[in-house]
Amino acid sequence: MTLRALQLTCTLKPSPAPSSSQKLGNELLAELASRGVETEEVRIVDHHVAFGVTTDEGTGPDGRVDEWPTIRERVLAADILVLSTPIWMGQPSAVCKMVLERLDAETAETDEDGLPTMLGKVALVAVVGNEDGAHHTSAELFQALNDVGFTVPAQGATYWVGEAMQGTDYNDLDASPDPVASTTRTAAQRAVHVASLLTSEPYPAPPE
């Protein structure tokens, strides 16, 4: 069975602005695609995703309809979720945190077999920033995603951080540095391996 991957890009910049988070995440998608995975991407700020912790926040007081339910359907259809975020003030972006808050609703959701909706899905993280903090940001995202039910493979993150106190972005680089490219390839390989295993041998029902 063909695996499917979805990237949620959590840049603060709406399209068509260039995004370092999108660039690194797309490089991860390309590595997944080279391994036979079907891929797609959603840039969150291009959609009206309401603040909240439910699967559907409905229509807001401004008359705008929450678009998270449509994005959620794409998450549910994916075997691998890629969460890409910049670092701001040593933290994942506010957009990324909002995505985690919306995913929090899944702790109370189950599938037709009574299992958590995100159980059996694999999560990868892509982080970019101009200062150190990639490990801290990855740790925050891994913990939250694991709580919801995602499986994080070994070495399931790729990241780039530039020299402190300067203005070069990942998007400004002509090519990915070799260590970053190697890490991206490894993360993709690990994700495909784990996702394939979970597809053929799903998690059992929780013990009674």
From TrEMBL:
It comes from the Bacteria. InterPro entries: Flavoprotein-like_sf (IPR029039), FMN_Rdtase-like_dom (IPR005025). Pfam families: FMN_red. Residues 16-156 form the NADPH-dependent FMN reductase-like domain. This is NAD(P)H-dependent oxidoreductase.
